[in-house]
Amino acid sequence: MPQLEIRGVCVHYELSVPILKNIDLDIFKGEIVSIIGPSGSGKSTLLRVLIGLLPPAQGTVSFNGKVVDYNSKTCLKELRDQMTIVFQQFNLFQNMSALKNVTIAPIEIKKEPKKIAEERSRFLLDRIGLSEKLNAYPDELSGGQQQRVALARALALNPDILLLDEVTSALDPEMTNEVLDAIRELSEDGITLIIVSHEMAFVREVSDRVIMMADGCIIEDGTPTEIFDMPKTDRCKDFVGMILSH
C-alpha cells in the first residue's frame, strides 16, 4: 500500500485558472522522489497541498490508507505530526540559538521532555556538521548553515515524510553543496523524501524516482535513468536537454 496516495487533485487560482490538473501519484515508504520541471509547473504547489497550506479544489490525498480531511484542524495536526516541510526561506527564530531553534518544536508541539529534545537536537546538529554552532544565533551563521539548522528542526519532529521545497535556491554554490551533503546524509535513514529541486545532478544521484511536471500536470514518472537518459515525451526531452546543457 502506498504511504501517500494522491488521486485527481486539482488546485485553481482565482478566476478558476488551474495550477494543478488531475494529479495522480503514489509514493511508497522510504522512497526518495524528486519533482522537476519549469517554473510555474505546479511543483511547489503540490507540496503545499500535501502539507495542508493550500487545500485541493477537488481530489483526495490519503496517508497510510486514510483520506486526509484538510478542513479538519484535528486531521491537519495529525498529518503535520508525521509530515514536515522545509522551504527555501530559513524561517529561523532570530532571537534563539541553533540548538534552541531545533529544540523548541518537539518541546512545544510534541511535549517532549526538555532533556530528551535537547539530546536529539544535539545529535541532529552534529550529524549535519554543526556541532560547533549549537549556541550560535542565525545572524552568526552562513546561509548554508541556517538551512541546515532548518533541516535539523524539521527532523527533530521525527516525521515519516519530509518535503523539501527548493531548499538551495537562495544559496550560492558553496552553501548549496553544504545543504546537499546534509540531505545525502539524511537520505540514508529510510525517511520518505519528496524533493522539489533544480539541482539536476543531485536529483539524479539521490532519487529513486523522478517526477517531471509541466503546466500543472505530471508529464513523466520514472527512474533517474529513464527521465534523464530516455525521456518519452518531447516536453521532458526539451526540458532535460536545456537544463543539462547549462
Task: Describe what this molecule looks like in 3D.
The protein is of the alpha/beta class. It has a domain at 89-157. Helix content is 38%, strand content 24%. It contains nine helices and ten strands. The protein has helices at residues 43-51, 73-80, 98-108, 114-127, 143-155, 173-186, 200-206, 224-229, 234-244, and strands spanning 4-12, 18-27, 32-36, 58-63, 66-67, 83-86, 161-165, 192-196, 209-214, 217-222. A six-stranded mixed β-sheet has the order 6-7-8-3-9-10, with helices on both faces. Helix 3 (98-108) crosses helix 4, helix 3 (98-108) runs parallel beside helix 5 and helix 5 (143-155) packs parallel to helix 6. The longest helix has 14 residues, at 114-127. The protein starts with a strand and ends with a helix.
The tally of beta strands, per DSSP, is 10
Helix coverage percent: 25-40%
> What is the rounded Rg?
18 Å
Strand order of the largest sheet: 6-7-8-3-9-10
Indicate the proportion of strand residues. Answer: 15-25%
Task: Describe the global form.
Answer: globular
Structural class: alpha/beta
| Biggest sheet descriptor | 6 strands, mixed
How would you state the average pLDDT, rounded?
92
Q: How many separate helices?
A: 9
Span from first to last CA? 39 Å
Unreliable stretches covering 5 or more consecutive residues: none
- The SSE order reads EEEHEEHEHHHEHEHEEHH
